[in-house]
């Protein structure tokens, strides 16, 4: 079925079918071979000539023709009851015999032998052939709700471009995406901006106790649903995410994983270029960025990564790149450290100014050797630039020079932990390796196991201070079992590839982190509240004439 769409000045959509809805009734009438009979003494030779005159259409200019035709469905004269399906013609309709209400019908339909319900306002004329009812035009939808500002801007742009008048076509024909329109409304452009480097701090989060773990699981299960299947899955998701935050020695695990990836890439001939895409090479030379990261040469790395964001970004520089924004303070605490040993620390950073990760940074925010290790894993799924961000490149180019709101304490916490949980998920690969080795060597602690794995990965001698003798083949088997997986999951003997961990649902992870904020101890929350004041003050220094002007959403009157 084809259809044409019309829209009048009153923003009322109508759906006008191009097929004749009465064609099936004509076919059924011809099957009864009574083309000249009439019902009710009509003189027109057609069975529908007895019907009362069709009501006049409304003259209201704000109502579309389709809206006027739909009004006839509400009058008793044109109601009909469904009896039998149509054999020929339009199978989506059904055959029925039109009858009048008792108080308006010109024919007495009463019959003592009839089984029809007299209490019903509809009666079927017994023995009469099916007649053709007057069917009103079908509507597609009711009056549209008031447009949002973004939809209005997109529709206006689409109308100017000469495209279809439909809303979806207008959006696709617009010169800018709809989320760019939202950003344009919520951000104040043309305001003076001062060039200040962003400030950062390392804030610790509390470890997950058994009681807090139980509370988080119960709340997440309550949020997901009460069915047994959903409850089991929800508890498994909570256990998995919270187990990531219970890891230790994050820096050492990142370094081991980076060396294993580089070794595998060189052995297989598949290396990653400066933007993280895989390429095939037959030479032993590494990409320039990898060489710069291994030398810890930040000036050379700045040619491929936008490290000095005080300077305009070039086409060869990648804007998004991972940094090690989470670590755990070791038990041998540094003398000048204010962090508590054994707790995870995440980096929070102001969002209004620019960031400089080169050696010229005035805020001591230069990339560390741990950051360079993590950058060698930038091709992994959780660490590379998301496909959604690549699709919204126009949006991010648009907001680079625009004014944004300062982040509150919760948003600082959430953004920091969303970055941290991705890094912890990557580190869990090495954690699994240590767990496999601990079953063979229960006498070794986790730092000793990491030293063994690191020595085997680098092909150097094992540490001499270990309490037991280590079999390198056992370590290699543990590495292959946890860091690699078959390319073809249905063929265990297929070629191996490096494990690239992913989350089943990024939304579930974000919801669990929100619950973690709600159950975070107050003394840990207070640290984020204090940094939110720094964020607000820094935002005021960058945008001295900023004024909070929220964009209120248009609400349709019920």
UniProtKB/TrEMBL annotation:
<feature type="region of interest" description="Disordered">
    <location>
        <begin position="24"/>
        <end position="68"/>
    </location>
</feature>
<protein>
    <submittedName>
        <fullName>LALA0S10e00254g1_1</fullName>
    </submittedName>
</protein>
<feature type="region of interest" description="Disordered">
    <location>
        <begin position="106"/>
        <end position="133"/>
    </location>
</feature>
<feature type="compositionally biased region" description="Low complexity">
    <location>
        <begin position="106"/>
        <end position="119"/>
    </location>
</feature>
<dbReference type="InterPro" id="IPR036910">
    <property type="entry name" value="HMG_box_dom_sf"/>
</dbReference>
<feature type="compositionally biased region" description="Polar residues">
    <location>
        <begin position="28"/>
        <end position="38"/>
    </location>
</feature>
<feature type="compositionally biased region" description="Polar residues">
    <location>
        <begin position="59"/>
        <end position="68"/>
    </location>
</feature>
């Amino acid at each position: 079925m084809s259809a044409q769409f019309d829209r009048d000045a009153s923003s009322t959509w109508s759906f006008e079918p191009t097929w004749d809805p009465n064609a099936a009734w004509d076919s059924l009438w011809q099957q009864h071979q009574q083309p000249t009979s009439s019902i009710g003494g009509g003189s027109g030779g057609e069975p529908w000539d007895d019907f009362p005159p069709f009501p006049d259409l409304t003259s209201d200019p704000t109502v579309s023709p389709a809206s006027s035709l739909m009004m006839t469905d509400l009058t008793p004269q044109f109601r009909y009851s469904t009896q039998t399906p149509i054999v020929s013609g339009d199978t989506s309709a059904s055959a029925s015999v039109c009858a009048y209400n008792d108080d308006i019908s010109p024919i007495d339909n009463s019959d003592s032998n009839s089984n029809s319900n007299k209490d019903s306002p509809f009666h079927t004329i017994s023995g009469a052939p099916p007649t053709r009812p007057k069917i009103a035009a079908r509507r597609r939808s009711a009056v549209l709700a008031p447009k949002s500002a973004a939809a209005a801007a997109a529709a206006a742009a689409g109308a100017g471009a000469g495209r279809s008048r439909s809303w979806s076509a207008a959006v696709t024909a617009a010169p800018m995406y709809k989320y760019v329109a939202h950003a344009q409304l919520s951000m104040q452009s043309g305001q003076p901006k001062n060039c200040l480097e962003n400030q950062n701090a390392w804030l610790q989060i509390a470890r997950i106790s058994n009681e807090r773990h139980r509370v988080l699981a119960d709340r997440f299960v309550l949020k997901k649903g009460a069915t047994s299947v959903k409850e089991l899955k929800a508890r498994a998701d909570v256990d998995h995410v919270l187990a990531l935050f219970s890891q230790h020695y994050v820096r050492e695990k990142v370094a081991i994983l980076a060396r294993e990836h580089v070794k595998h890439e060189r052995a297989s001939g598949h290396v990653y270029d400066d933007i993280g895409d895989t390429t095939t090479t037959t030479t032993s030379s590494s990409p320039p960025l990898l060489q710069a990261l291994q030398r810890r040469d930040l000036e050379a790395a700045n040619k491929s990564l936008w490290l000095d964001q005080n300077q305009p970004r070039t086409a060869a520089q990648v804007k998004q790149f991972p940094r090690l924004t989470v670590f755990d303070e070791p038990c041998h605490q540094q003398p000048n450290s204010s962090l508590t040993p054994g707790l995870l620390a995440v980096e929070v950073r102001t969002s209004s100014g620019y960031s400089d990760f080169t050696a010229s940074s005035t805020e001591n925010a230069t990339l560390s050797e741990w950051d360079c290790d993590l950058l060698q894993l930038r091709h992994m799924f959780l660490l590379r630039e998301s496909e959604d961000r690549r699709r919204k490149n126009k949006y991010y180019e648009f907001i680079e020079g625009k004014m944004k709101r300062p982040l509150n304490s919760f948003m600082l916490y959430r953004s920091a932990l969303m970055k941290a949980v991705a890094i912890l998920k990557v580190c869990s690969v090495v954690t699994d390796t240590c767990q496999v080795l601990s079953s063979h060597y229960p006498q070794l602690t986790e730092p000793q196991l990491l030293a063994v794995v690191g020595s085997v990965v680098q092909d150097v001698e094992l540490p001499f201070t270990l309490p037991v003798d280590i079999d390198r083949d056992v370590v290699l088997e543990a590495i292959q079992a946890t860091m690699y997986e078959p390319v073809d999951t249905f063929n265990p003997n297929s070629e191996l590839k490096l494990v690239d961990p992913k989350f089943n649902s990024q939304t579930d992870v974000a919801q669990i982190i929100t619950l973690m904020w709600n159950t975070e101890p107050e003394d840990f929350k207070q640290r984020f509240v204090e940094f939110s004041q720094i964020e607000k003050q820094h935002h005021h220094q960058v945008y001295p004439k900023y004024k909070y002007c929220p964009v209120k959403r248009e609400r349709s009157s019920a």
